[in-house]
Structures are given as structure tokens and as C-alpha cells.
């Protein structure tokens, strides 16, 4: 028999699969059902999950917590990692985790499921159902209701991988990454209704080295919001809509504030979103900054404001002494951004009169409005344009 390249790679694949099998086989597995979790969607399984976590956490070897198929009712739970004895925990989820149908049960706890001070965690698969609809109705009716809980939050944690997860109908944000280093989020689906308040897809703050890949997000607020102190963030192959787009901000509320730097947003699609690529700062004094941002290869399908810098944010003209943002925006590139806008002003750079934007680059931006010429508006924005820009650059 002739040994072809194909045979060799097939053999290689088999060898790799064998070792992969061996290595995953050596992981000690903690099945949540062995700790009393019930896949009936009715029995409270919170304690069982926490006990499985405590057992896994006490192991000095790599561990796996396994959640078999079925629906597991969970109230608010905090998974603490500071005393864990290993740095390699996997939570493999084949089932659905369901929040209590009465939103008051978790609505004042801030987070539904929270991981804090965890190092080396992989969450693979799983559907998280926040059951937020009743709370959204309460909020939009103007009654007094709880703030709501974030579905899945990671605080002060390092080396996190989240993959293949589905998050549905969160009460508040779907996911929060705050104070973390090295987090990779990929192949996720995040969804809530277009008119659900504050249901941001992923909120990142005070974190460095976060990567978000191949994720589909549709919510009632920002698909991804990027808060203070975020650096080295990479977003690629994300589709957004409905929602408010991908937003850096709001920044600049406080005088002393950590800046945002080195953000790449690459190969994204926006469908029917309120904004596309946005940077938003309060019109208040601040020492904050945004620098080193690359927005590259975006397709806009009927986005209201595809490209927006809004440094004049001051709802109801309240709380904005001085009325000019202190946040310094520099070195922001928009490259190969094309498609359709639903407002005539498809590109708006409204920078701070106290701190004009510097180093803005527009390259091959092609946006149309109802098959007509769109408009570009710039104020206090300095930079350069390259290639063909439609509407014509206002820099
Ligand atoms: C910017 O962030 C990327 C990851 O998103 C990282 O690979 C790169 O090294 C960072 N650049 C600098 C100058 O820190
Ligand atoms: C993103 O999508 C493009 C086009 O489908 C693909 O070529 C690229 O490898 C993807 N990148 C990642 C990081 O998945
Ligand atoms: C801009 O986009 C329109 C509509 O998609 C297209 O017809 C046109 O050729 C594009 N122009 C350039 C310069 O790429």
C-alpha cells in the first residue's frame, strides 16, 4: 500500500485523539447529579452545584465538573476560587441551567452565577436561561422593580476559557468580565429580545487579554460594552443584532479613571442595530483616555449610526459640569467598513471641544443611506483619510 500524505495525517489525527482521550480520561470527574442536582427544572440544585465545586476545588489534580442533560434550577451562586488547589477545572455542561421564574429571587443579588478569584477555568457548552422577561416587563412599565442579576460574571479571575455556551434572556447583562486577565470566549450565542432593558451581551471592564471569537449576539442593549481599564482586547467574527452595537463606554464619569487601550474589533456584522462601532464618553471632566483602537472589516446592514464617536453624552443635560469631556481619544482606525445606514449621518465623530480626538484614520469606509449618499459629520476630530471614503471624509 502506498503511504500517502493523507494516511500520515489520518494516523497523526488518531494518535492525537488517543492522547487526548487519555488525558481527559485521567481527569477526575464530579457529576453534579452525584451531589444531588435534579434535572427536572423544579428542584433547587444550587447546593448540589456548590458542593460539586467545593469538591473539585479541593482536588490537587485537573478536574471536571459534569452537568448531564436536563434542566437544573439554580438560585444565585458564588463560585470562589481563591482556595482551590488546582489550576485546571473544566465545567462541561450538556444541560440547561434555569434561573427561578420569580425574578425577585435573584433580582437583587447582582449576579446569578458568579465566579470570583478563579484561576484556570474552562466552561464548555451549556445553556443559561435567565428567565428575564417578567423583569423586563416590570422595568418598562415604570413600576419599581429590582435591578436584576447578571447571568454569568467573572471577577478578579485569570485564565478563563468559555466555549460553546448559549445565554438566553438574562435579567441584566448576560456576561461580565471584570478585573480579569486572559479570558477567551468563543462560539457563543447570546440572545434576548430587542426591547429588553440593560441586557448587554458581554461587558468587559478592568481586564486585560480578553479575546472574543465567533459569537452571535442579539440583545436589547450593547452587544459588547467595553468599560474602564480594558486593555489588549481582541474581538473577531462577532455578529451583532438586534442591539446597540459594540461600544467603548460610557467612559469619563469620574475625574480619576483608568483608560482603555489596544482594542481590535475585526470582521463584525451589524444587523438592524442602533449603533455599529461606537465610542461614548460623558461630557464631564476626567483624566480618562481611549487609545489604540482598530475597527476593521465590518459590514453594516441597516445600522442607525454605523460609526459614532459621542463625547457629548449628557442625558437630560444633567450631571455634566463644564459640558466637555475630559477623555482623550487618540489613534483610532476605521478600515474597510461598509454597508447601509438608516440615518443620513452614517459617520459622526463628535469629539470633545476640550480634548479634540487625535490620530483618527478613515480608510475605505463605504456607507450608504437608502441608496443615496450618506453624510459624515466631524467636530473637534483630527486625522487622516486613505483610499476611497463614502461619504467623503470629514476629517
Ligand atoms: C495588543 O493586544 C493584543 C491582543 O489583543 C496583543 O497580542 C498585543 O501584544 C497587544 N499590543 C501591545 C502593544 O500591548
Ligand atoms: C473569522 O472568519 C473568517 C471568515 O469566515 C475566517 O477566515 C477566520 O479564520 C475567522 N477567524 C477566527 C479567529 O475564527
Ligand atoms: C460602495 O458601496 C456601494 C453599495 O454597496 C457599491 O455599489 C459601491 O461600488 C461601493 N463603492 C466603493 C468605492 O467600494
Descriptive account of the structure:
- By secondary structure, this protein is mainly beta.
- The chain folds into two domains: 28-219, Single-stranded right-handed beta-helix, Pectin lyase-like (Pectate Lyase C-like); 222-395, Single-stranded right-handed beta-helix, Pectin lyase-like (Pectate Lyase C-like, 3 Solenoid), CATH 2.160.20.
- It is 12% helix and 51% strand.
- The chain is built from four helices and 29 strands.
- The strands form two sheets. It has an eleven-stranded parallel sheet. Strands 8-10-13-16-14-11 form a six-stranded parallel beta barrel.
- Strand 26 and strand 27 (372-373) form a beta hairpin.
- The chain is elongated.
- The chain starts with a helix and ends in a 9-residue tail after the last strand.
- Mean pLDDT is 94; it is low at 13-23.
- The structure holds 2-acetamido-2-deoxy-beta-D-glucopyranose (3 copies).
- Residues 232-234, 262, 264 line the site of one 2-acetamido-2-deoxy-beta-D-glucopyranose.
List key phrases describing it:
Pectate Lyase C-like; cell wall biogenesis/degradation; mainly beta; six-stranded parallel beta barrel; binds 2-acetamido-2-deoxy-beta-D-glucopyranose
Short overview:
By secondary structure, the chain is mainly beta.
SSE topology sketch:
Blueprint: H1 5-25, E1 28-31, E2 40-44, H2 46-58, E3 63-67, E4 71-73, E5 77-80, E6 89-98, H3 104-107, E7 111-116, E8 119-129, H4 133-140, E9 150-155, E10 158-163, E11 166-168, E12 175-178, E13 181-186, E14 189-191, E15 202-205, E16 208-218, E17 224-226, E18 231-240, E19 246-251, E20 260-271, E21 275-282, E22 289-303, E23 305-313, E24 328-341, E25 345-350, E26 357-369, E27 372-373, E28 375-379, E29 381-386
Parallel strand pairs: 1-3, 2-4, 3-6, 4-6, 5-7, 6-8, 7-9, 8-10, 8-11, 9-12, 10-13, 11-14, 12-15, 13-16, 14-16, 15-17, 16-18, 17-19, 18-20, 19-21, 20-22, 21-23, 22-24, 23-25, 24-26, 25-28, 26-29
Antiparallel strand pairs: 26-27
The structure holds 2-acetamido-2-deoxy-beta-D-glucopyranose (3 copies).
Amino acid at each position: 500500500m502506498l503511504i500517502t500524505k493523507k494516511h500520515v495525517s489520518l494516523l497523526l489525527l488518531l494518535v492525537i485523539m488517543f492522547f487526548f482521550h487519555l488525558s481527559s480520561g485521567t481527569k477526575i470527574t464530579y457529576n453534579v447529579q452525584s451531589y444531588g442536582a435534579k434535572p427536572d427544572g423544579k428542584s433547587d440544585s444550587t447546593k448540589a452545584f456548590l458542593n460539586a465545586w467545593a469538591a473539585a476545588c479541593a482536588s490537587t489534580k485537573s478536574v471536571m465538573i459534569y452537568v448531564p442533560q436536563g434542566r437544573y434550577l439554580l438560585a444565585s451562586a458564588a463560585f470562589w476560587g481563591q482556595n482551590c488547589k488546582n489550576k485546571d477545572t473544566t465545567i462541561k455542561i450538556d444541560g440547561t441551567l434555569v434561573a427561578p421564574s420569580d425574578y425577585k429571587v435573584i433580582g437583587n443579588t447582582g449576579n446569578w452565577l458568579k465566579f470570583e478569584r478563579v484561576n484556570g477555568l474552562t466552561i464548555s457548552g451549556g445553556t443559561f436561561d435567565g428567565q428575564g422577561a417578567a423583569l423586563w416587563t416590570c422595568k418598562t412599565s415604570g413600576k419599581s422593580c429590582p435591578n436584576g442579576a447578571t447571568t454569568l460574571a467573572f471577577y478578579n479571575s485569570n485564565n478563563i476559557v468559555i466555549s460553546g455556551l448559549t445565554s438566553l434572556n438574562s435579567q441584566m447583562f448576560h456576561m461580565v468580565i471584570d478585573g480579569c486577565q486572559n479570558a477567551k470566549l468563543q462560539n457563543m450565542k447570546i440572545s434576548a429580545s430587542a426591547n429588553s432593558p440593560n441586557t448587554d451581551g458581554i461587558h468587559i471592564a478592568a481586564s486585560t487579554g480578553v479575546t472574543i471569537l465567533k459569537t452571535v449576539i442579539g440583545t436589547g442593549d450593547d452587544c459588547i460594552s467595553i468599560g474602564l481599564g480594558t486593555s489588549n482586547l481582541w474581538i473577531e467574527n462577532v455578529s451583532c443584532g438586534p442591539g446597540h452595537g459594540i461600544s467603548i463606554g460610557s467612559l469619563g464619569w469620574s475625574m480619576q479613571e483608568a483608560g482603555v487601550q489596544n482594542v481590535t474589533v475585526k470582521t463584525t456584522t451589524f444587523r438592524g442595530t442602533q449603533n455599529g462601532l461606537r465610542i461614548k464618553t460623558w461630557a464631564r471632566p476626567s483624566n480618562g483616555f481611549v487609545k489604540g483602537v482598530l475597527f476593521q472589516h465590518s459590514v453594516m446592514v441597516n445600522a442607525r449610526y454605523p460609526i459614532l464617536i459621542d463625547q457629548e453624552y449628557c442625558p437630560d443635560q444633567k450631571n455634566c459640569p463644564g459640558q466637555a469631556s475630559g477623555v482623550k481619544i487618540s489613534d483610532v482606525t476605521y478600515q474597510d467598513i461598509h454597508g447601509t445606514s438608516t440615518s443620513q449621518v452614517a459617520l459622526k465623530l463628535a469629539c470633545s471641544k476640550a480634548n479634540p480626538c487625535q490620530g483618527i484614520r478613515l480608510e475605505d469606509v463605504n456607507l450608504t443611506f437608502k441608496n443615496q449618499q450618506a453624510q459624515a459629520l466631524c467636530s473637534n476630530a483630527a486625522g487622516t483619510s486613505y483610499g476611497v471614503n463614502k461619504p467623503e471624509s470629514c476629517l
